[in-house]
């Protein structure tokens, strides 16, 4: 399945019985006079998690074991970040920022659903099976994603790092020899590009704002930066995937990441923190003390009431 | 504090948001929001008012930069044209032989 095909699959996906978005292509305003409303509603066409789940169930998209493992890793990264960011809803400094972080969280949740739907294609597990019914050591996310929100500056520092990392990753993954991975990444990269901008704007404002905001920004980067190194570590899986041009080696993203984050940090008159890297191990299921609590909150409903819907 | 400043303290100023729904149409007022500066106002507007594919272009304007007509002077402002049908083209009879009018 490649991206151009997905436009024609959008309507097929309704057969799948997955949670449909409430506004269809023929929904209010879609065919109406555009001048009539400043808030015209059209869903637009793009690769959706439902399309992937359907392609997987029909057998038109099936990941190799290695690709499925990579999709699990990237899906877990996005899922844990979405859960973290979702916590800001009703707690951000202003209502508008509350919505901005909620938007980013939902983008990440969308990426997670796509990756996990595809990963489940290996053994028939659904996105929900993977999200709600795996235990902590089975999660493959890198540890930076589970780091606490802290104050607003901490959340921005974490978001700054991961959005620049995800952008470099998805930009390359959009060229993957695996068409589904390429399709997911091609859609995600546009969204992550905006996440980069959002966090960079805040890094500049906090770092160049008041003494208080600058101190908090500096402290936040110092706390987050030990977890940067793990994002760019290669292992046997990434080695095999890069040989078949299915995915880049994480280490190959580092130069661009350093250059682009360096430009923003320099503009913000900040130094790259000089800290020792954390041991990491998230890709092997070794997590910091924070992930268990996230999973407890995220999974409790699905585990208490399996199959619950509302 | 007896006379609070409109933007005193940590309250972000209000911006009015105008969204163009597609090329060739004009920007239409969509609503308002808070933002610390114009760059962030554009981003907040993107998040608040174009979530469902509503726009291809956004303007933001500081709310206090907008001068508006006084609702109390509605009569003198807007009711005077009533009954002046000679201000409409349909008031006039077409001259003979004029095409495409």
From TrEMBL, chain A:
| SUPFAM superfamilies xref list | Ferritin-like (SSF47240)
Compositional bias annotation for Polar residues: 1-11
Question: Which is one Gene Ontology cellular component term of this protein?
Answer: cytosol
Q: What superkingdom does the record give?
A: Bacteria
Q: Where is this region: Disordered?
A: 1-43
Which Gene Ontology BP annotations are present?
phenylacetate catabolic process
Supply the name of the protein.
Ring-1,2-phenylacetyl-CoA epoxidase subunit PaaC
UniProt lineage: Bacteria, Bacillati, Actinomycetota, Actinomycetes, Micrococcales
From TrEMBL, chain B:
Return the Pfam families for the record: PaaB
| Protein origin, superkingdom | Bacteria
Q: What is this protein called?
A: 1,2-phenylacetyl-CoA epoxidase subunit PaaB
Q: Which organism is it from?
A: Arthrobacter methylotrophus
Designated gene of the protein = paaB
